[in-house]
Every structure is written in C-alpha cells, then in structure tokens.
Amino acid sequence: MRKEFNSITEIKNEIARLQRDADKLKQKTRSKVISDILRSMKEHDLTPEDIAQAFHKNPLKTKAVSKIRYQHPDGHTWTGRGRTPTWIKQIESEGRSREDFAVSSN
C-alpha cells in the first residue's frame, strides 16, 4: 500500500504522523518490557543497585600488549607486527640482520 503525495508538505505531514504512531507503539511496548524486567528482578532477588553495577562493568576486553621483539641501541623498538619501521629497513639496507637487534626472551 503506497500513498501518492502531491507536495513536500503532504510528505512531511505523513512523516510526522508515522513518527507519532511509532512513538505510541514504542510507549506501549516499553511498559510491557519494564514490567517484564521488574518481574525478572523480583524472581531473581535483584536490586536496582545490582542492575546499576552491571552497567558500570567494562564489557570490553582489554587489548593485549605485544612484547617488544627488536630494539635498536638508540632506544627505538618494534614488536615485529605491522609495518616495518624505518630503522629496521635502514639496518637491512646496510646488509645487517634484524635478528642482530632481537630482544632476548629471558
């Protein structure tokens, strides 16, 4: 079912009407969802503080820090991941091996 519109104003009015309908529907379903949540909280002896605490937990895993695999005497380091740094390219262009700068894993 598609309604034909003859002007921008008619389209804007239809959008406003649909938005009002969506808001009413959201409000209607929201009440049920809230009552379901409250019922579940009572069944499981949960308090609002329990719920608030769950929101404050950091769900994201922390990013693992890569170990340094190569270190230049001037302090530059590289994990061996990602783009090869300029200093590694430089030493290899001089005929030296990056393994000469490998950090021992002791």
Automatic annotation (TrEMBL):
Subcellular location: Cytoplasm, Nucleoid
Family: Belongs to the histone-like protein H-NS family.
Annotated coiled-coil segments of the chain: 1-28
Keywords noted in UniProt: Coiled coil, Cytoplasm, DNA-binding
InterPro entries, per the entry: H-NS_C_dom, H-NS_C_dom_sf
Species for this entry: Alcaligenes ammonioxydans
Domain DNA-binding protein H-NS-like C-terminal per the UniProt entry, residue ranges: 60-103
Coiled coil is among the record's keywords: yes
Main location: cytoplasm
PANTHER family: DNA-BINDING PROTEIN STPA, PTHR38097
Protein name: H-NS histone family protein
SUPFAM superfamilies: H-NS histone-like proteins
Cited SMART domains: HNS
